[in-house]
Design a protein that fits this description.
Blueprint (H helix, E strand, L loop, with lengths): L9 E3 L8 H7 L4 E6 L7 H14 L5 E4 L1 E3 L2 E2 L21 H14 L4 E2 L23 H18 L4 E5 L20 H7 L1 H9 L4 E4 L16 H11 L5 E2 L15 H11 L4 E2 L4 H10 L6 H8 L15 H17 L1
Helix pairs in contact: 3-4, 4-6
Length: 338
Amino acid sequence: MTNQYTIGPVMLDVEGLTLEKHEAEKINHPNTGAVILFSRNYQAPEQVAELIQNIRKARKGDILIAVDQEGGRVQRFKEGFTRLPPVSYYAKAPELAESAGWLMATELLSVGVDFSFAPVLDIDCGISQIIGDRSFSSDAELTTQLASLFRKGMTAAGMAATGKHFPGHGAVALDSHLTLPIDNRDLETIRAKDFLPFKQLIKEGLEGIMPAHVLYPSIDPNPAGFSSFWIQEILRKELSFNGTVFSDDLSMAGAAFAGDFSDRARLAQQAGCDMLLVCNNPVAAEQVLESLPITQDANREQRLQRMKGCLTSPMPFNKTEKWQKISHLINQLTQQYA
């Protein structure tokens, strides 16, 4: 197959367990670059592997496959996969953090997923229920240490990591899926605490970052994912991040301030997002695909190529002694604190 298209700037989703013809056509749009899978797309490892194969076949060129597989409340593939605990549990068992990252990545890579949107780098401030136990810790240094280990495990398995939600979603009570949260802290406060895990993992080679749908009005008038200050000045220049910037889902209420879906996509792209997520709204995804100019961007393409998965374990992975041992330990941890 000739790679007619490079990886486009839009990540969209599909409706069910199999790929429909009209979805295959959208996947082959020049602006499509990735598909994110949800629980509704998953029934069993064999089924999702076939779905992913069909998604790849539908595209005349490269495409990335992603999922949210953090553990705890946010684990899209369950039956046939190890049930991962919330990452806050690794503070009680730090020796398992790296192994857990390897396990999560290995299981996903084995069915054809390129990457999970992980690890969460938000610091739990005891305020945000939507973050809560999705954060490694309320301690910035411990969060940094555990997230670094978790990413190290992902890397060993052959998976790129995406830190979220820059510059930090842990200090707001509201859920950006439903509204636009406002964080009134100043830049120095955020820099001294929330930046720490991002800064360290960027030094270690972090491949992706997702900004928050959060407004920091004392710093910039636009939410982080639509802000050239946060993406260009802070992420790219101050923190020297050279990986992929993913917008958070443009269908979320936290993005509505920017206007219709075409406006949201344009503003996020102008701010510096390499890939735009449009989920759970097929009409919105079509609008974004059609409204964005079709452009070639060698730098964006290079960054997105780094998000491709590369399974380093033998197949089938669940027959290996390493997988069996780690899966058993993770199951024990999950049950111990459940």
